[in-house]
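To the wet lab folks,

You asked to see what we're planning to order before we commit. Fair enough. Below is the target structure as tokens, and below that is the sequence we designed to fit it. If anything looks off to you, flag it before the synthesis order goes out.
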């Protein structure tokens, strides 16, 4: 049904299509319909090419995701691991078909739980290409995390280039904060203003940025200050990170001890 609705609205005259899309983006149901109808084929096409070429432009990324002994090297996580216990539970939200996170770390027992709303489609791709993931991504939209997991179940909730691809990013981040223990972290790494860079194609319907030290979420229809919205739950540190070739927005949200 969502794909049928998207096909139908694509046939409308531009003068009708633009205000209709703007109206849809203001409602959760409308955003979900547009998200699913517009982005699914775009996303599956990318990952099909990625598997066909064993990494597309990033062959080392392909090899690393399939290595069960790869060490965690995400700086946002690594710098916080020493303060956590010997067993560390990490939730990877919007993980794709193969989580980008390494599976090991010296002195720690790491348990990674990757979830994605397209996990079923990714399972089909994995079977098609004969790929056995070291840790399998399971189905769970970020907007429904609280229906799947217990409050305080994780030491770290992590998302890389995924929250801004969803239909309700603010709800996902809030859910992630709910699912980590008090005093630990939600960690985000996203390409800055990717919706704008990608001209709002596929799942790229939102932008993350930092303004006056605050983490902000926006598109052409609305804007939200996540630092202010999350203040009752945790403290937010957000900044630009120009390491490598990408212009990243990175954020660390430390859950308040008394947050519920």
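Sequence we intend to order:
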């Amino acid at each position: 049904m969502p794909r049928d609705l998207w096909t139908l609205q694509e046939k409308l005259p531009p003068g009708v299509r633009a205000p209709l899309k703007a109206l849809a983006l203001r409602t959760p149901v409308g955003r979900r319909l547009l998200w699913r109808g517009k982005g699914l084929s775009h996303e599956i096409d990318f990952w099909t090419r990625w598997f066909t070429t064993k990494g597309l432009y990033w062959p080392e990324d392909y090899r690393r995701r399939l290595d069960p002994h790869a060490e965690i090297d995400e700086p946002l996580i690594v710098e916080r691991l020493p303060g956590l216990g010997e067993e560390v539970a990490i939730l990877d939200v919007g993980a794709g078909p193969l989580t980008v996170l390494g599976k090991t770390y010296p002195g720690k027992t790491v348990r990674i739980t990757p979830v994605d709303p397209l996990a079923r489609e990714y399972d089909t791709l994995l079977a098609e290409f004969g790929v056995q993931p070291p840790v399998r991504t399971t189905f769970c939209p970020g907007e429904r995390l609280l229906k799947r997991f217990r409050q305080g179940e994780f030491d770290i909730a992590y998302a890389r280039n995924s929250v801004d691809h969803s239909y309700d990013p603010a709800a996902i981040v809030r859910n992630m904060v709910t699912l980590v223990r008090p005093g630990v972290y939600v960690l985000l790494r996203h390409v800055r203003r990717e919706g704008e860079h990608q001209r709002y194609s596929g799942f790229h319907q939102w932008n993350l940025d930092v303004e006056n030290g605050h983490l902000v979420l926006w598109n052409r229809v609305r804007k939200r200050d996540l630092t202010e919205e999350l203040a009752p739950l945790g403290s937010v540190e957000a900044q630009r990170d120009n390491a490598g070739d990408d212009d990243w927005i990175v954020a660390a949200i430390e859950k308040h001890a008394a947050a519920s």
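Structural context that might help your review: Residues 1-6 have pLDDT under 50 and may be disordered. The chain has one domain: 41-255.

Thanks,
Computational group
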